[in-house]
Specification:
Distance between the termini: 46 Å
Radius of gyration: 17 Å
Oligomer: single chain
CATH class: Alpha Beta
Largest sheet: 3 strands, antiparallel
Number of domains: 1
Shape: elongated
Helix content: 25-40%
CATH superfamily: P-loop containing nucleotide triphosphate hydrolases
Length: about 130
């Protein structure tokens, strides 16, 4: 119903810290706020998978970490898979798995093990470091 949708929207806007902006139009929001609205919309659909291109690019570092933690919580709680494309090492370090692509080719597949990246496939040049900060 329309009332249920409205409540669900409020819930997800609250999760991304935008409750007071519920009645704003996109042109009244900053780039970071619009990015958080997009994240809330993706979460509200209860999708099994969310694809996000640079999900924290327009966010300040504190908000970005909060959004990443929220996504990690949703992953653990509901099993939602999040797939990010990013250059941000903080985003990489919060991931459970890593696929590195260079020149359109997968060059490394990694997973977390005891707080470090373990690469199960690695075509990177010798000496190239892992994404630890």
């Amino acid at each position: 119903s329309k009332a249920e949708r409205r409540e669900r929207v409020k819930h997800y806007l609250a999760m991304v810290g935008l409750t007071k902006f519920a009645d704003h139009r996109p042109n009244q929001l900053s780039g970071g706020q619009r990015q958080r609205v997009a994240i809330a919309r993706a979460l509200a659909t209860h999708s099994k998978m969310v694809l996000a291109d640079e999900p924290t690019a327009n966010l300040d570092s504190k908000t970005g970490v909060g959004i990443l933690r929220l996504m990690k919580d949703i992953n653990r709680k509901y099993g939602t898979t999040f797939v990010f494309s990013t250059h941000d090492r903080k985003v990489m370090n919060m991931a459970d798995r890593l696929v590195r692509i260079a020149d359109g080719e997968i060059v490394a597949l990694g997973k977390r093990a005891e707080g470090r990246w373990v690469f199960v496939q690695d075509k990177r040049p010798q000496g190239e470091e892992d994404p630890e900060v």
